[in-house]
Amino acid sequence: MPRLLIIHHTPSPHCQEMFEAVLAGATAPDIEGVEVVRRPALTVSAVEMLEADGYVLGSPANLGYISGALKLAFDQSYYQLLDSTRGRPFGLWLHGNEGTEGAERAVEGITAGLGWVKAAETVVVMGKPTKADVEACWNLGATVAATLMG
Known about the structure:
This protein is an alpha/beta fold. 43% of the residues lie in helices and 25% in strands. Helix 4 links the parallel strand 5 (89-96) and strand 6 (117-118).
């Protein structure tokens, strides 16, 4: 069974709301035959990342960059993943109170180096998530999970 790994850093209620919407989308009743595993960025292992068939990444944009937790997850696993995970689909959500461009560029650079394929548009939310933002997060989770269905 294909495995979707949701790697998240959710230090705020807004990030938690986005994470929960992504998870709800990834585990929607229409998504069949996909195991969804969720791990905080500070505890995810390289083995868990290697065992996944697709990824959804979530992070606050801290000072215009991805969280240290998500960066650490990649720092600890990058070379193990480098030749083993090419072509795998991924999606990204970011929460910021100011610019998120640096965080977006960071993830684009890391995932390009790994050869991952963007399966859905990045969801960027500034401030409190609106109903439309929550729906976009739900769609992000559902879209990446659906890419693994068949």
